[in-house]
Amino acid sequence: MLALRRTLSTWTVFVPIAALLVLALTWNQKLDGIMVVIVGLFLAGAVLAAVHHAEVVAHKVGEPYGSLVLAVAVTVIEVALIVTLMISGGEKTQSLARDTVFAAVMITCNGILGLSLLIGALRRRLAVFNPEGTGGALATVATLATLSLVVPTFTTGRSGPQFSPAQLTFAAAVSLALYALFVMVQTGRHRDYFLPVGSEGETLPEEVHADPPSTRQALISLGLLLVALVAVVGDAKSVSPAIEAGVAAVNLPPAFVGVIIALLVLLPETLAAARAARRDRVQISLNLSLGSAMASIGLTIPAITIASIWLEGPLLLGLGGTQVTLLALTVITGVLTVVPGRATLLQGGVHLVLFAAFVFLAASP
User: Can you tell me where the transmembrane regions are (predicted)?
Assistant: First the structure.
């Protein structure tokens, strides 16, 4: 009983619950300046708590399962938010899934990945990882992104950058199948491809730290992780009108709001990846970044395919020329980064420049 009281008294328990209560109190309400600040503070606290609980769960189940838990949990909640907004948002949300998924791919494959490589290289001169596992993950992301976001631009079944119903069903089926196949490979036969490696390519032992948490503690953390992630996504939506007003005030395109919200939603993965890179576990960072990109596509496309039964109007999935160019450059650069199995500051800097280019062009198309 005393241990339970101590658990419930920690900030990592209090903050997610408080952030969820704040979300319930402010849902669908117009927030003034003070409330925006308050919700923003609880949003930041929920992000930090999510990272803590994800690490507790990862410590219990080991890698690569820990990275998979955080990536899938964030993506499932993000997908639910996208579908909810698309069902209730009308014509202005016809391209929401495309914009959100593309932003997630660019943030994870350039922003998070580049930051992880930069931190790893700063610590050990070289960021070392397993090229087999990382290469397979990158190939899966590239295939999913091309089939779901590039091909609709060139199909002729429907006018505009959209799939016909049969094409959309096929894209949803292969996206889900390919993601399931990757998870099976990552957690089964080739699990060792996704474990941290040393400078000579040897698999590193598990980190030496405190004893693994009990099953009860891990389940509590798993529940609190879900609470924190719901709070992150929901509070991000609550402050989105203030973000929209700020974006409009500085004459940025309306689509830039999606970039800001995607950055907020992906903060837990960003912080978790940076912390893993600081511990010389760059492979875990790459598992998080590429796994999040993969889950974002592999789960969003099937979800919106089902939701399209109730959606009115076209579902715009095809990217424009600028976005296709950025995606192609990201894939080419990613291949050149992954093949050697080690990266310097240069590779990290290149990916961060691509991320900066994405943000800049989203603000100034």
Answer: 7-27, 33-53, 65-89, 101-122, 134-154, 166-185, 218-234, 254-274, 286-310, 316-338, 345-363
